[in-house]
Write a structure and sequence with these properties.
The chain is an alpha/beta fold and about 170 residues long. The chain has a domain of about 110 residues: Nucleotidyltransferase, domain 5 (2-Layer Sandwich), CATH 3.30.420.10. About 30% of the residues lie in helices and about 20% in strands. It has a 5-stranded mixed sheet with strand order 3-2-1-4-5, with helices on both faces. Strand 2 and strand 3 form a beta hairpin. Helix 2 runs parallel beside helix 3.
């Protein structure tokens, strides 16, 4: 009847009548996101669990540098540092490969934990980890507190009194 232009009640009253007869349903997509759980990782020894991340360092005259850090969670020792002028998947892949070779990680013995940055989720990095037989683990989306190891290390570094204003 509404298509013909005939209306016998207010639109709100029509909604009440339809709801009374169970004719109203949710119009948005009903499928929600699956519940994501916080990863539970435990470092039982050195070189069992590494956390890695990238942070921005302020340079002179408006330039910036990227600090790549791989941190051993058990000892809190930085096993793989690198400073670069760009954030790149190829540099991240190079750092992981060199660090694993330098530390001599055993196959299926190491887990590499990261947040969901573009370099961390890259296919080339994932392929490298498969080749090296290193397990990967990622934090939940939009949850910076899931990677406290690297984030705490960056904050400690940047809030020291002798931290330079520019490099």
């Amino acid at each position: 009847m509404l298509d013909e232009g005939t209306c016998y009640c207010n639109w709100r009253m029509m909604c009440i009548i339809l709801a009374k007869h169970d004719e109203v349903c949710e119009r948005r997509s009903q499928r929600g996101h699956p519940e994501s759980r916080r990863p539970k990782l435990k470092a039982t020894g050195s070189n069992h669990l590494w956390s890695w991340d990238i942070t921005l360092l302020r340079g002179l005259k408006g330039t910036f540098y990227y600090l790549y850090v791989i941190l051993d969670v058990y000892s809190r020792y930085i096993v793989g540092p690198m400073i670069a002028e760009e954030e790149s998947v190829h540099l991240a892949r190079q750092l992981i490969a060199e660090t694993c070779a330098k530390k001599g990680t055993a196959p299926d013995h190491l887990t590499l934990y990261a947040d969901r940055g573009s370099a961390m989720r890259a296919k080339t990095v994932a392929r490298l980890l498969l080749e090296l037989q290193v397990a990967k683990s990622h934090a939940r989306p939009h949850t910076p507190t899931d990677n406290p190891y690297s984030e705490a290390q960056f904050k400690t570094m940047k809030y020291r009194p002798e931290y330079p204003k520019a490099f």
